[in-house]
Inverse folding.
């Protein structure tokens, strides 16, 4: 694992890591990709990958150009009162979409996922492995339906409010949506829910 | 409004009505389209349009090739106990998506809405005017957020379960989803919700 002799500016190193990461996540998926393998393909030390990005999940987010850091979301939710995490998540979600730059980045991701099967597979893997398992999985019990029900409610909201822009949802103040949605998300996080018996894992 | 002298078989008449309807809904929107205008453009008596389709909302559903009759959904929900309409709607929704023919039709609608702005506008109008107002508006109080929150939850579910096919949501038995989602939908139908003050109508 010695450093190679290549010398590059910070920008070049970061870009080489992201390029190697994108290729590996697309080819091998999240589980079979390692920080060590990305570092080897990029010709850098694994410590440098962690120095730039923090973790495998964060390299994946950066490789996808996902506009928010999944572990910072997880940290902010973990810091909230467990009985108010539903509300905290709705606020975080609306805050991310309210930023025009974030919104454009997410819409670009969705557009490429709709038109390109490899991009779709990477986004599916990111949502299923990183957002549902690494982020949400740490905050709820082991019922794997919980993060997916939360994802379904928030994805559908984003579609109608920000993409299709149906009124009065599109111009509805955030606080009204927080009051409407927080109890739903809180129940999916901590309420009584059946386990998905009979489903494939 | 006299009948024209044209003679056509049933199939030809039905097709001519749908063609005139599609052109008018696309050009003028739902509110400015009338059964009378569609009949005139198709060269038939307005009574024949109603005979074939039942109502303007139903002509619109047929013109879009929407696979279920919105008024039959409204009728089945209206027949259910008001406190169990959430459950009834989740069952109806899962039943529509479980039919491969319906699923293909909805996916074709979504694909053309993604790639074609006029198709997107018609689908938006159909969901906003027909499904939210004509169907859901008859079953809930006047808060216009109610049908949109229901639509957001169900659209997000369909996206993750049937389009992206994330496990364990994709293979989860219907009954588990009914138990998980019915309380959400019931609350959006009849529970305490803030009104969308400050939103555009």
């Amino acid at each position: 694992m010695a450093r190679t002799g290549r010398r590059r500016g910070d920008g070049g190193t970061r870009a080489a890591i992201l390029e190697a990461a994108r290729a590996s996540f697309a080819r091998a998926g999240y589980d079979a990709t390692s920080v060590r393998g990305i570092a080897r393909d990029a010709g850098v030390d694994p410590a440098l990958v962690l120095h730039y990005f923090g973790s495998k999940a964060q390299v994946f987010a950066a490789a996808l150009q996902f506009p928010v850091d999944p572990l910072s979301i997880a940290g902010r939710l973990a810091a909230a009162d467990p009985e108010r995490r539903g509300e905290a998540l709705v606020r975080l979600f609306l805050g991310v979409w309210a930023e025009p730059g974030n919104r454009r980045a997410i819409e670009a991701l969705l557009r490429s996922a709709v038109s390109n099967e490899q991009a779709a597979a990477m986004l599916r893997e990111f949502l299923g492995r990183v957002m549902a398992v690494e982020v949400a999985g740490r905050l709820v019990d082991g019922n794997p339906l919980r993060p997916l029900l939360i994802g379904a409610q928030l994805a559908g909201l984003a579609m109608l409010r920000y993409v299709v822009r149906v009124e009065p949802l599109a111009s509805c103040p955030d606080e009204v949506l927080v009051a409407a949605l927080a109890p739903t998300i809180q129940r999916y996080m901590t309420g009584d829910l059946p386990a998905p018996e009979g489903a494939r894992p």
Remarks:
- Residues 53 and 80 of chain A are 25 Å apart (CA to CA).
- Chain A is about 70% helix and 0% strand.
- Chain A has two domains: 10-63, 70-190.
